[in-house]
């Protein structure tokens, strides 16, 4: 007799960075007072021939970090920043917010599952990478991820319905329950991906997200169950891209042959 154990597929929490995208980075800055983190990252970078172009900068204290920021253009830089520093009341989130490097940063911490840290990272739109996994981190150097669509909606019923429909079409997708979680992970997405955004969230609006993205994604659609007259005008919103329904828009996709479970809901 053969025993078969089936375990459910478990996706990581939305605030967790499962990989680190270095495709567009020329500099990788590690700001951490733990020398073992610097060594772990150095070993991973030096062992990857595709990262030979990458300049690795180690900052062990506040002065080193501020000196780098004062002398460099960080548009092509990715920051790996610790949350807690010995003898310092400031956190990694404090530094990220102060220097406005949110979109270029990942918080690397052993406190990744503490609610206080999760809440702060969500407000700052900064993903978290568990420090204990740094010696096995996966650096991504391939072109930005081409997905068939991204859905940002806080209603789990809507996300489940879209997931079911998308799987039947054989589509590759990402799903997020909150705009903050989307912003944590959008660095690795193609600007041409179809982005479907719910209009109303408990703590923000889809319109606010469009303003914050500042045209980073061109192929967006706004989802709403509201009547047309209840949608405000905005320079950020093309009213032709409003879908007055929460049903899966199958007419925008072509069903793929031999469709299978390709989607990824986070």
The best one-word shape is: globular
Average residue pLDDT: 84
Would you count the extended β strands for me? 15
Element-by-element helix/strand order: EEHEHEEEHEHEEEHEHEHEEE
Number of helices: 7
The structure class reads alpha/beta
- For the record, the count of structural domains works out to 2
Rounded to the nearest angstrom, the radius of gyration is 20 Å
Unreliably modeled segments: none
Largest sheet: 6 strands, parallel
SS strand fraction: 15-25%
Secondary structure: helix percent: 25-40%
The first-to-last residue Cα distance is 37 Å
Going by CATH, what is the homologous superfamily of the largest domain? Response regulator
What strand line-up does the widest sheet have? 14-13-12-10-11-15
CATH class of the largest domain: Alpha Beta
Task: Give me the CATH fold name of the largest domain.
Answer: Rossmann fold
CATH architecture of the largest domain: 3-Layer(aba) Sandwich
Description:
This protein has 266 residues and is an alpha/beta fold. It has two domains: 121 residues, Rossmann fold, CATH 3.40.50.2300; 117 residues, 3-Layer(aba) Sandwich (Rossmann fold), CATH 3.40.50.2300. Helix content is 26%, strand content 20%. The strands form four sheets. The protein has a six-stranded parallel β-sheet with strand order 14-13-12-10-11-15. The longest helix has 14 residues. The mean pLDDT is 84.
């Amino acid at each position: 007799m053969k025993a078969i154990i089936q375990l459910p597929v478990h996706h990581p929490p939305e605030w967790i960075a499962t990989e680190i995208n270095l495709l567009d980075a020329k500099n990788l800055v590690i700001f951490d007072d733990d020398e073992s983190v610097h060594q772990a990252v150095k070993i991973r970078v030096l062992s990857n021939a595709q990262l030979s172009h990458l300049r690795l900068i180690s900052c062990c204290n506040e002065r080193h970090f501020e000196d780098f920021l004062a002398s460099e253009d960080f548009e092509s830089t990715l920051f790996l920043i610790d949350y807690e520093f010995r003898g310092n009341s400031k956190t990694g989130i404090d530094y990220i917010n102060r220097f406005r490097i949110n979109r270029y940063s990942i918080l690397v911490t052993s406190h990744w599952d503490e609610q206080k840290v999760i809440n702060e990272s969500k407000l700052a739109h900064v993903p978290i990478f568990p420090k204990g996994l740094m010696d096995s981190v996966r650096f991504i150097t391939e072109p930005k991820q081409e997905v068939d669509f991204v859905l940002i909606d806080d209603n789990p019923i809507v996300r489940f319905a879209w997931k079911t429909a998308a799987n039947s079409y054989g589509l590759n997708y990402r799903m997020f329950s909150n705009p903050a979680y989307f912003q944590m992970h959008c660095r690795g997405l193609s600007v041409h991906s179809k982005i479907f955004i719910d209009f109303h969230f408990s703590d923000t609006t889809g319109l606010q997200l469009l303003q914050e993205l500042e045209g980073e994604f061109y192929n967006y659609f706004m989802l709403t169950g509201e009547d047309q007259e209840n949608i405000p005008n905005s320079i950020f919103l093309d009213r032709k891209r409003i879908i007055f329904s929460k049903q899966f828009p199958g007419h925008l996709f072509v069903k793929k042959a031999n469709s299978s479970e390709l989607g990824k809901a986070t």
